[in-house]
Structures are given as structure tokens and as C-alpha cells.
Write a structure and sequence with these properties.
Helices cover about 35% and strands about 15% of the residues. The chain is an alpha+beta fold and about 425 residues long. It folds into three domains: about 1-100, no CATH class; about 170-195 and about 205-335, no CATH class; about 350-415, no CATH class. Helix 2 packs across helix 4. It is globular, with a radius of gyration of 27 Å.
Length: about 425
Amino acid sequence: MIKELKMMGDQIFLIVTPPIGAKDASYEDFKKVRELMEDGNHELYNGCTKYRKLSYIVRLYHVKVLCGAIDKTFSIIIELLNDAFPYAKLPTSFYEAKKMIKMLSLSYEKIHACPNNCMLYWGSLEDEKRDKCKKCNMSRWKSNENDGGESHVTDFQKKKKPKPAKVLRYCPLIPRLKRLYMSPKTSKLLKWHARVANPDGLLRHPRDSKAWKDFDSLYPNFASDPRNVRLELATDGFNPFETLSSTYSVWHVMLYLYNYPPWYCMNQTSLIMSMMIPGPKMPSNSIDLYLQLLVAELKILWNGVEAYDSSTNEMFHMRASLFCTISDFPGLDNLSGWNTHTLFACPSCRFDTESKRLKFGRKNCFMGHRRYLPLDHKYKYNKHSFDGSLEFRSSPAPMSGSEVLEQIEEYSRKRSRDEGTSEECPL
């Protein structure tokens, strides 16, 4: 439906044509976006060349978010602007401005979670209506410490809407990927990896790696369409209060699109915020509880969804896959479930890890790294520079996906049998 959508400075230029092969559901979606763009493409006022209506509202909303202004402050500012510039095409209230931005389908969802990271009140109607956690029996809502007990609670306080104890903010992935293909600029950049050849064969982009090529050989149907998206996931915690005395930790999950060229894929404007996991403590191994929302969308994207490519003006079947994850070593513990702070911390050597405990340093050190060298390498025969032994073993074979799944299921069965024990497993 959108044939050309360009943004030069703060101006949006739009040419609208019906897409080829559009279906009913997709047609309605594009119709809403078309109407929004047509309305937002108007000049802010007659003769204004710097701002368009939509771009100016987005800039105002951006200032509100950066400065932490409340909704009432934003409404007062809009009223003042309308009073001073009655000829400008501005919304009359904050509600109208937010409604206009919401039509871009780039909002987030608030999902209640157990404070102990036991469950999400999501997935089934029964879980969504629960008031207590089905595992730890903790209340879903915050307790009002000023009530002074149940006997002092008034009828007005009982009618007040309770506040959730913990809220996960999740940004849906599918509408964001669809919006990227609605812009001719990003649509062309998402196909850069297949359109531009590698002149010298050096590793300059993930598409030049062995992992990318192996994935293409395993899933040729996915690789046949360059518009299919390959994602990278990264997660880490940070202190939102910027004070060393506070131990409050919030974890964010970010997604990067490896379809983009190398100078574009790591830009701040190119990343996708997937979710914000609230504190006060890190989710640790319970992070998979929150990632199940992203996994549910990735399953849908693996089968494919209908999307519109504005650079070719046609509908296509868009698929996506999680290509890899990037994290530090403690973060690997959370994402994979492999215990990285024991004698079996190496995820490559696994149970064949050679580890020693330093007597005075009181830390674990890991040996056996010479196994990964070629068989004729000189370091394999150099015992004086290492631990006094020769190394003739080959590198350990990587585990297959079925072997990893079998190991996880075995540990899950063992944990269910020995519930309440303090025994830890590397998985």
C-alpha cells in the first residue's frame, strides 16, 4: 500500500498505491497506517517546510519521555501551543496525540508477574484471573502498609484498583518487523546481506561466518528469501538509579537485526527493545519465564507472517529466526542455564573440563585449552610452559540439539524428584 515513504530531516513524504497480493487482514492493517501517514504528512502550518504534523507530534512526545513529564504537563503544553498558534495543525489534548502515535503499533504490553519470578499472569484465562501465585502463593498485588490491618480498610479503599507487585513491559516483535518493511529505506537495508557481495572473502559481517553458511545449508527454504530476518539477542542488567549504594537491578532484553549492513545494525536506532524485566534483583535462571513471550512470537515468525515490502510494492511471507545470542560469561549462565561458576563452567568442554582450585587465589582455573590446537602444533609438546604434561587429545565434539534437550529433561526429572535439595547441576 505504501509505495514510497521518505523522511528528509523532519519531513515525511508519502506516495500511496495498493499492494500486490494484499489479503483482507493485512489490507486493513495497511489501511490504518496509510490513513495515519496521509494525515501526518500535512504541513504543520501553511508554508512550514521543516516540520510535518506527525513528525512534530513525535518530537514533542520524545521530549516528554526524555524529561519525564507527566501527562497533565504535556496536555498543558499542547493547550498553550494551540492558544499561541491557532493556525498550527496540533492535537487538542494529550489523549489525541497518544492515540495518533499508538496507531503506529509500536506500543508495549504490561504483563503482571510474581514477585518471586515463579509465573506470569499470562498465557491462559485461568492464569490471567489469578490473585495469587500458583507456586509460592504470594499475592499478585501490592499490600498497602498504611491500611493498618484489614479491620481499618474502608469501603473506598476496597473499591480502589489494586496495584500489581511486579510488571513486565514487553514490546511485541512482529508489528515492529512489519513496520521496518513499510519504509523503503529500511526495507532495502534489510536485504543488504544478499544484495551486496563480499569482494575479498574476509569476515566483515555475520553473513560471512561459518555459522551463517551452516544455517543456510540446514534451512535452504529460509535462506532462499533474503527478506527473512535473522536476530541476535543480548541481555544485561543495569542500575536505573545511577547510584552505587543502590543494589536495584533492571534487566533489558535487546534484539539486533543481522540483515542490516555492519555500519547500521549496531546503531542505537536499529536495535529493538524486546522487554524490560523489573527488579529489584536479577532474574537469574528464571529469565526463561519472561523469555517465553518472545519465544511464542519467534515460533509464529518461524512459520511466517504476511508483511508488505514497500521497496517492491508487494506482499510476502516474512519469517524470522534467532541466529545467536551475545552476553558476558555470567549472562551466559542466565540465558543457557549452564552453571558458569563451578568446576564445570566451560560450556564447550562441559563434563570433560579440566579445572583446578587455586590454593591461595581461591579461584577456579581451567586447563586443557591446548586441545583446540592442531595436532602438530608446538604447544602440544611444550610441557614446561604449561602444567608439565603433553597434550595429544583432540577438541571435544559439540553437542547436538537433541543431546542438549535430553540433558535438560534429565535434570528436570531429577530436580522434580529431589525437590528441596541444595544439589546443583551444571545445567
